[in-house]
């Protein structure tokens, strides 16, 4: 196997994403797990924003957010999602398309509990994506959340995860003279059996 092929070598696309993420953790300046997540509104108008990818499971990806945010509303409308991870230091990207469902059980509680107290209070205070008068108003909301929920706040019912179940992946690695390597993995008829094909750059 050449060095070039070996960066694409993995038993499935989740393992490959994990392997590339492990490399990115060593080389990226910050937030190697930052991904651009795309949704569409009721008119089909797309929307994209960065969130942090918090876990790569054997058949899914999980990130956390506010369930009253614009992205959550749009996921609720379509059930569909796409994201891209791009690592400048590696000159690689991973594109994923699939469906998303809420993760508001034990893993969400555990992740919430692992966060810094002020982040947990911030989740209570932020009415994400709604208009806000000033920074002072936000800080006052955080102090109100501190007074109400104390040192050990429970996870807000309006805050939790989304679990993304991919139907398609594309792995892209930069090549000389724009002759990049691209591999698309798609799910066959059997759950979690993946077929892969090479694409022109
Ligand atoms: C590096 C970075 C990481 C972010 N991580 C998250 C995140 O994990 N969850 C989240 O809800 N927003 C995160 N944000 C903020 C979102 O980009 C966005 O502003 C917010 O979620 C509201 O998006 P919406 O109005 O489309 O729902 C992050 C932003 C940046 C730049």
UniProtKB/TrEMBL annotation:
Its cofactor is FMN. HAMAP family: PdxH. It is an enzyme of class 1 (oxidoreductase). Binds 1 FMN per subunit. Gene3D superfamilies: Electron Transport, Fmn-binding Protein, Chain A. Homodimer. Residues 22-146 form the Pyridoxamine 5'-phosphate oxidase N-terminal domain. This is Pyridoxine/pyridoxamine 5'-phosphate oxidase. InterPro entries: Pyridox_Oxase, Pyridox_Oxase_CS, Pyridox_Oxase_N, Pyridoxamine_oxidase_dimer_C, Split_barrel_FMN-bd. Belongs to the pyridoxamine 5'-phosphate oxidase family. Catalyzes the oxidation of either pyridoxine 5'-phosphate (PNP) or pyridoxamine 5'-phosphate (PMP) into pyridoxal 5'-phosphate (PLP). It comes from the Bacteria. The keyword Cytoplasm does not apply. Residues 159-201 form the Pyridoxine 5'-phosphate oxidase dimerisation C-terminal domain. FMN binds at residues 49-54, 64-65, 70-71, 93, 128-129, 172, 182. It catalyses: pyridoxamine 5'-phosphate + O2 + H2O = pyridoxal 5'-phosphate + H2O2 + NH4(+); pyridoxine 5'-phosphate + O2 = pyridoxal 5'-phosphate + H2O2. One of its GO terms (molecular function) is FMN binding. Pathway: Cofactor metabolism; pyridoxal 5'-phosphate salvage; pyridoxal 5'-phosphate from pyridoxine 5'-phosphate: step 1/1; Cofactor metabolism; pyridoxal 5'-phosphate salvage; pyridoxal 5'-phosphate from pyridoxamine 5'-phosphate: step 1/1. Its EC number is 1.4.3.5. The gene is pdxH. Pfam families: PNP_phzG_C, PNPOx_N. Substrate binds at residues 54, 111, 115, 119, 178-180.
């Amino acid at each position: 196997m050449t060095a070039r092929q070996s960066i694409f070598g993995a038993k499935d696309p989740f393992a490959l994403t994990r392997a590339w993420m492990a490399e990115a953790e060593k080389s990226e300046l910050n937030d190697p797990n930052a991904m651009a997540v795309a949704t569409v509104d009721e008119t089909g108008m797309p929307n994209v924003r960065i969130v942090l990818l918090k876990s790569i499971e054997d058949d899914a990806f999980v990130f956390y957010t506010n369930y009253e945010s614009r992205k959550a509303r749009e996921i609720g409308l379509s059930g569909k999602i796409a994201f891209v991870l791009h690592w400048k230091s590696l000159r690689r990207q991973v594109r994923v398309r699939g469906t998303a469902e809420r993760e508001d059980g034990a893993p969400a509680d555990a992740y919430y509990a692992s966060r810094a107290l002020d982040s947990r209070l911030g989740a209570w205070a932020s009415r994400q994506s709604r208009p806000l008068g000033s920074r002072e108003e936000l800080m006052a909301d955080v102090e109100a959340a501190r007074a109400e929920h104390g040192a050990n706040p429970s996870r807000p019912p309006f805050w939790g995860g989304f679990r993304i179940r991919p139907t398609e992946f594309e792995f892209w690695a930069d090549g000389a003279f724009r002759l990049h390597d691209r591999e698309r993995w798609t799910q066959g008829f059997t759950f979690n059996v993946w077929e892969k094909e090479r694409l022109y750059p």
